[in-house]
Write a structure and sequence with these properties.
One of its GO terms (biological process) is anaerobic respiration. It is a single chain. It contains eight helices and no strands. With about 190 residues, it is mostly helical. The chain has two domains: about 60 residues, no CATH class; about 100 residues, Di-heme elbow motif domain (Multiheme cytochrome fold, Orthogonal Bundle). The model has no long low-confidence stretch (mean pLDDT about 80).
């Protein structure tokens, strides 16, 4: 390549850059750029960020005010965060199981996934009932939780009750708490 060709190529590049720069300044190009990331985008992004911040703030406040971290523990005191459960706590403290089992031992499945699914399910519905006062007094156990309680009775006492369990799948079995209602909660 000669020196003259090189100068000619540089000149063409400069002209092309000037033309491109001038083309970028046209009203159509500016409008297109504003539509792509203009003031409207900024307003939507700001509204989204404010909404997200408010929801996160309310969530953190509610979790703290409702002692949410306590629900991740195995502490029976967690159950009386809601005043509606105080009678159940008092009756458990008088029961024969008080020294051998806490609330989670009887009211949550013993497998890890079932335990956390049930905690999430119960936590959601307990918080709704607590917030809006939508529970029966005295509080009633849901059918699903009644099945969980039956399963935990059998799980803990399987060595003693093996002969009482149905021998065929699908056979009916009397609920343990039908006869032993005072075991977990005395005087209920």
């Amino acid at each position: 390549m000669t020196k003259e060709t090189s100068i000619h190529d540089d000149s063409e590049r400069d002209d092309l850059a000037t033309q491109t720069s001038a083309a970028d300044d046209t009203p159509a190009t500016k409008a297109s750029a504003e539509n792509q990331h203009g003031p409207r985008f900024g307003k939507v992004a700001l509204a989204f960020a404010v909404t997200l911040g408010l929801l996160a703030g309310v969530g953190v406040f509610t979790f703290g005010y409702g002692k949410g971290a306590s629900y991740l523990s195995n502490n029976p005191q967690t159950c009386v965060n809601c005043h509606a459960m105080q009678d159940h706590m008092d009756s458990w403290q008088q029961s024969s199981h008080h020294h051998v089992a806490v609330c989670n031992d009887c009211h949550l499945p013993h497998d890890a996934i079932g335990k956390w699914v049930t905690k999430a399910d119960n936590g959601f519905f307990h918080s709704l009932a607590f917030t809006f006062g939508g529970y029966k007094d005295p509080i009633q156990i849901k059918p699903r939780n009644r099945r969980v309680t039956q399963s935990t009775c059998v799980d803990c006492h399987k060595d003693f009750i093996h002969n009482l369990l149905p021998t065929t799948d699908g056979a009916d079995m009397q609920s343990c708490v039908h006869c032993h209602a005072d075991v977990g909660h005395a005087g209920r």
